[in-house]
C-alpha cells in the first residue's frame, strides 16, 4: 500500500459511499435522517438495502448480520446469507429494506435481569442508521455488519445502545433549549462526543495458553511477583519493541479500514501494558468503535502469536487497565460547549454547561459509580493506581477559583459594577490548559472536556455514556425552565450558577484523591464511597435514579432494576469462574507439583542421612513447604465449601454478598500460600508460567 491511510474507511458504507451509490432523491432523505435524527422513511429502505448489498457483495460478503450490544457487555451477531432460492433450482442474492431495518433474533439466552421469562423468546433488532454499516472479515468469512438496537417482544430495552441513543436525544433537546435562551438561533442540534482511551496488556500466546486462569477468567489468580515490576518506571512511554510496534501497526490498519480513528498509542505504566486512543466522535459511534477496538485487539494479537488481555487486573502487584472516557457536548455547527471560549458571553454560557455537569455528577454520583461496577474494577478503584470509589470533580486552579467566587453570593458579584453585568460577565477570559493535570481525579476537567477515569478496560463505554447524557440532560432541563421563564437572563444565570455552586461545591476536589485524608474529608462532605461492585449494585436504583431516567424517557424503573440485577449477576458469575479456576489450578496443578518437590526432598534427606550428613537445611525446606502446602489445602477446602454455599443461594443479592465476603477473601488466602510456594519450589516443576515470563518476554 502506497499510503497507510488510503485504507481508511474502505470497509464502511459511509456517507461518501452513499453519495456515489444512492440515487439523489434517496440520498437526500437518508442525509436528512442522519443530520436531523428523524426516522428513516420505510419507503426508501429497499433502495438503500439494495445499494448496500451490491457494495457488500463486491467486497466479498456472503452474509449480513444485525450487530447489537446485549447486557453481557460484549457484542452479539447472528449471520444470515443474502441467498434466496428462485424455485427453479437456482439461487439469487437478495437483501430487502425490511432485512436491513429489522431483525428478530431469539432473545431468550441474553441477560434480561428478570425482565423476561425464558419462554418469552422473541426479541427485535432495529438498525441504528446513524452508525454506518460495515464489512468485517473473520478468517475467510466476510460479513456485512449492521449496527442495531435490541429490544424484547414487549418493547423492553435489552441492550446498551437503545438507552444511549435515547439519552443523546434527551441531551440534545435540553441543551438546545439552553442555547436558545442564550440567544443562539443557529445551532440545530447538540451532540455528546466521546473519546475512550483503551488500556490493554499483550503477552505471548504460548504462555497464555498454559494458564487456565487467564484463558477462562481473564486474570491470574496465582502468581508470585516478578523480581522486577514497574518500579523503574521504564516502561511508560518507553520505546516500543519491534513485535509490539508491528502489532500496533497491524491493529491500526484493521481499525482504519473500519473508519475507527485509532490515533494515539504508547507503552503504559505496567510492563507489557499499552494504550490506544482514537480521535473522539459522536458518543454512539464511539461506543460501537470501542467494541470494535476491543475485538480487533484480541483478533490481531491472536494472529500474531500473542494474547491481548482486557481484564482490569490481569496481574497482581502491577497497575491494572482502565478506560478513560473523555466526554463533551458540541453543537452541530462545531461549538464545543465545554470550551471556555473567549468572549464573556460564551463564558457565561460555558459556566452554565460546566455547572450543569457539576450538579449532575454530584446528584447522581452513586449511579455513575454503579455504571462502571465490575469485579475487575474492584481491584483497581482506590488501590493507588486508579481513582478511589469516591466520585469528585477536578476543575483546576482557575476554574475552582471562579467557582469559589460565584459561591460567595450576590454581595460579591455586585462588585462587577451593578446593572445586569453582574458576576458572570465580568469574569476573566478563560484559557485552555491554564492549570496542571490531576491524574488522581476520577472526573477531571481537561481544558474543553471531562475525563471520567473510573471505567474499567473491559467494560462498555455505552453505560457511562448514557448515564452522563441523561443526568446532564435532566439538569439542563431544570436550567432551561428557569432561563426561559426569566425576564433578565443574565441575572437568572447568575442565580442559577450561585445556587449550583452552593449546593454542589462539595463534589469539587483538586487535591490528591489517593490519600487517606481525602477519604476522610469526602466522608465529612457526605459524598458516597461505594467501595466495591456489590455495594454499588445490591440495593438497585433508588428513587432519584428511577425518576431521572423516566423523566428523560431513557429507561423505565423496571428496566433500570433489571440492569442493576444483570450487573450483579455478572459479578457473581465472574467471581464464581475465578474461584473455580483457583480451585482447579490449586488442586490439580500446584498441589501435585509441590508433592513432587517434597518427594524429591525427602528422598534426598533419606539418602543424606544414610551418608551421615547433616540434613537440617533440607529438613527445614521440607517443613516450610509442608506448612504452606497444608495452608493451601485448607484454603482450597474452604474455597470449595464457599463456592458450594454460594451456589445454593437463590437470591442474586445474597450471592453477591457471599462472593464478596466469603469467596474473594478465601481466594486471597489460597493465593498467599501458593505464591509463597512458588518462590521455594524448583522452578522446573512449577506448573504455571511465571509473572517474569508473562510480563517481560518480548
Ligand atoms: P491523555 O493525555 O488523557 O492520555 P489522549 O490524547 O490520550 O489524552 O486522549 C484524549 C482523548 O480525548 C482522545 O481520544 C481525544 O480524541 C478525546 N477528546 C478530545 N476532545 C474531545 C471532546 N471534545 N469530546 C470528547 N472527547 C474528546
Ligand atoms: Mg487520559
Fraction in beta strands: 5-15%
Q: Name every ligand kind in the structure.
A: adenosine-5'-diphosphate, magnesium ion
| Quaternary organization | single chain
- Estimate the mean pLDDT confidence: 90
What Rg is obtained from the alpha carbons, in whole angstroms? 28 Å
- The helix count comes to 23
Contiguous uncertain segments of 5+ residues: 410-426
Give a quick account of the main beta sheet: strands, pairing sense, barrel closure.
9 strands, mixed
Shape: globular
Number of strand elements: 17
Q: Helicity range of the residues?
A: 40-55%
Explain what this protein looks like in three dimensions.
By secondary structure, the chain is α+β, with helices and mostly antiparallel strands. It is built from 23 helices and 17 strands. It has helices spanning 15-21, 24-36, 42-58, 97-101, 161-181, 205-209, 212-217, 242-257, 283-303, 344-363, 365-371, 375-378, 397-407, 410-413, 462-484, 489-504, 516-525, 533-537, 543-551, 557-610, 616-648, 652-678, 691-696, and strands spanning 63-68, 76-81, 83-85, 91-93, 102-103, 123-127, 134-138, 141-152, 190-204, 262-267, 273-278, 281-282, 306-309, 323-331, 393-394, 443-445, 450-452. The strands form 3 sheets. Strands 9, 10, 11, 12, 13, 14, 15, 16 and 17 form a 9-stranded mixed sheet that branches. Strands 1, 2, 5, 6, 7 and 8 form a 6-stranded mixed sheet that branches. Strands 3-4 form a two-stranded antiparallel sheet. A hairpin with a 7-residue loop joins β1 (63-68) and β2 (76-81). α8 crosses α9 and α20 (557-610) runs antiparallel to α21 (616-648). The chain is globular and about 100 Å long. Adenosine-5'-diphosphate (ADP) binds next to β9, β11 and β14.
